[in-house]
Write a structure and sequence with these properties.
This protein has helices spanning 12-16, 39-52, 60-79, 86-104, 107-114, 118-143, 150-158, 185-203, 208-215, 219-222, 238-244, 292-307, 312-319, 323-326, 350-357, 399-422, 433-438, 440-443; strands spanning 28-32, 35-38, 167-168, 171-180, 182-183, 227-232, 256-258, 261-271, 274-282, 289-290, 342-343, 368-371, 377-388, 391-392, 428-430. It is an alpha+beta fold. Residues 169-269, 272-383 form the PpiC domain.
Length: 449
């Protein structure tokens, strides 16, 4: 049976609630070791697929199978002591919250919708985000040796009957130049003053860890008193590590500025290239960031680009502050294939979709607000370079997409083989009697009675 391995699924119930609100009587439908699959998990996954692509949506049994495989990978990650870094969890969590902000329009709207503070929502979502990253890490371990050759891509393409070739929607090539908001001097001074006060309190006898737990805006480390343990040199941002290596164990730094905000750092221990340190992170308030200079800068740059669009790639490389796109000439890429051809459909970020829908090919947008994937506030201009009509797949125009499809099939096969070998190491039980009957052919392959 075809496996639908949806590795972001553990975060999906939180996100899907914003779009699909079925009346579901919740309960546990399956258990994998100490992990549970809820009826709402299954129903929301199934409904989301139905909403996105009803013709090719997986069955409910296939969705259940995918959820069970993900839970087995999570259980095996715990057995094998697979870990993910707190800073990666924090970054992913901020990305999830940014998606919510884009979906609801503002943090205020989210709070009203869920009747919970942003911090409460982050705390509830954090475990799911961490589990999702653990599953992803397990899948990378399982499929790390899987490669695809050009001949395999060609065989994959030729395996489709001529009347059943994949059909690709309209695609666009679009780039952007981003300038980030600047923190005002007054705002930086206020943060430095607060951190300086924390330092005085610690020197007067207060516990650094308790202050970090109470005040630090690095949610991951704050839960552990601001502590990062056994950090390898080169892991943290340069400004942070520069301060660390100027300290002796027990010493506290002056406020240190990095791209994440301002830090107060206490070195706990250092052994060669490995250190442990606590920090208190304060971030500037987004509504106090200054967009005046970045907006004026892009206004001026836009005038030059309108006069000569051929300079776009050069200017993007030189002036864009979006690290993810600047190095490739400003072009926004598909996150999986790294192609600069983006599907003009529901998979596109809504703000980008509706902006392009009102633009003409070959034109530049006005300067508009923008939030980067890692949560930074800024402005950007878009360049709508080209649009490609919908078409049936061919090897010349769609090689990268076909390569990704063939590689994913091969990876799914590798995961399937791993699952068959691993399933006996964990306890799997489907509890819902209706699903046991409906999905008997799937369940019988692995359930332990």
């Amino acid at each position: 049976m075809k496996r639908f391995l949806v590795l972001w699924m553990m975060c999906l119930p939180f996100l899907v609630n914003a779009q699909v609100k079925p009346q579901i009587i919740d309960g546990v439908v399956a258990k994998v070791d100490n992990h549970y699959i809820l009826r709402s998990d299954l129903e929301q996954m199934y409904l989301q697929y139905q909403a996105d692509n009803p013709k090719n949506a997986p069955s409910k049994c296939q969705c259940l199978n995918s959820l069970i495989i993900n839970k087995v990978m999570l259980a095996k990650a715990e057995i094998d002591s697979v870990t993910v870094e707190d800073r990666n969890v924090d970054s992913e969590l901020e990305g999830r919250m940014d998606q919510m902000i884009q979906m609801y329009g503002s943090e205020k709207n989210i709070v009203e919708q869920f009747s919970k503070s942003i911090e409460q929502l982050k705390a509830e979502l954090r475990t799911d985000v961490k589990n999702n990253l653990l599953v992803g890490e397990m899948q990378r371990k399982i499929t790390s040796e899987v490669k695809i050759t050009p001949s395999e891509v060609r065989r994959f393409f030729n395996s489709f009957p001529k009347d059943s070739l994949p059909y690709f929607p309209s695609e666009v090539q679009v780039g952007h130049i981003v300038r980030l908001a600047k923190v005002t001097r007054d705002e930086k001074d206020k943060l430095r003053e607060r951190l300086g006060d924390f330092k005085k309190r610690v020197l007067a006898g207060e516990d650094f860890g308790k202050l970090a737990s109470t005040y630090s805006e690095d949610i991951g480390s704050a839960q552990n008193g601001g502590l990062y343990v056994n950090v390898k040199r080169g892991t943290m941002v340069p400004e942070f590590e520069g301060a660390v290596y100027r300290l002796k164990p027990g010493e506290i730094s002056e406020p240190v500025e990095s791209e994440h905000g301002l830090h107060l750092i206490k070195l706990e221990d250092m052994k060669g290239e490995i250190y442990s340190a606590r920090h208190i992170l304060l971030r500037p308030e987004y509504n106090r960031l200054d967009l005046t200079e970045p907006t004026h800068f892009l206004d001026s740059l836009r005038s030059k680009l309108v006069a000569d669009s051929a300079r776009f790639e050069k200017m993007a490389k030189e002036y864009s502050e979006d690290k993810a796109t600047a190095d490739v000439g400003g072009w926004i890429q598909d996150p999986e294939s790294r192609s600069v051809h983006l599907a003009m459909d529901e998979s596109m970020e809504p703000g980008l979709y509706f902006t392009l829908d009102s633009m003409k090919v070959g034109t530049f947008s006005q300067v508009m607000p923008y939030r980067t994937n890692d949560g930074k506030t800024g402005v950007r201009i878009l360049y709508y370079k080209a649009k490609f009509p919908p078409h049936f797949a061919n090897l010349t125009d769609d090689y990268l997409k076909l390569q990704r499809m063939a590689l994913n099939r091969k990876k799914n096969t590798a995961v399937d083989k791993w699952f068959k070998k691993t399933k006996s190491e964990v306890f799997i039980q489907v509890r819902d009697p209706n699903l046991k009957t409906e999905c008997a052919d799937v369940i019988s392959a692995y359930e332990q009675q």
